[in-house]
Amino acid sequence: MQIIRELRDEDPRHMSLRTMEKETGISRSRLDDLFHERMGSPSLQEFVTLCMLFHQRASACLEEAMKNTGQSHGEIIDAARAYEARERESQLTDDLIDRIAAHPEDYDMAANKDPNARLEAETPDE
Q1: What is the 8-class DSSP label of residue 42?
Q2: Which residues does 79 contact at the CB level (< 8 Å), separation at least 6?
Q3: How far is the CA of 94 from the CAs of 22, 27, 88, 102, 116, in angstroms?
């Protein structure tokens, strides 16, 4: 992210986070987190989008990042793929939580509606 931050600092447009949000579709809070290196690294899509915003090829920025870290191309690609997989898992979880919150009636427990629930709960196991 240091490379993206340097591109932003060198950009003659001196864009605000609000302007960057409008141009990229990435929220201001996420941009602020990225530029201050909080809440994880950028996703591959975020990285590419920000490179494009600053009129840079993502591949060139990635090569520069690899030089700075001393990592090989394969290591960077593996790390990017692992990060994307974690992002997809997180998104699935977030989507499910949103679905449950929006439609709790679809996820009611049978015991909450069963007229025999109390009797069954009090019946000793054999």
Answers
A1: P
A2: 71
A3: 24, 17, 10, 12, 34
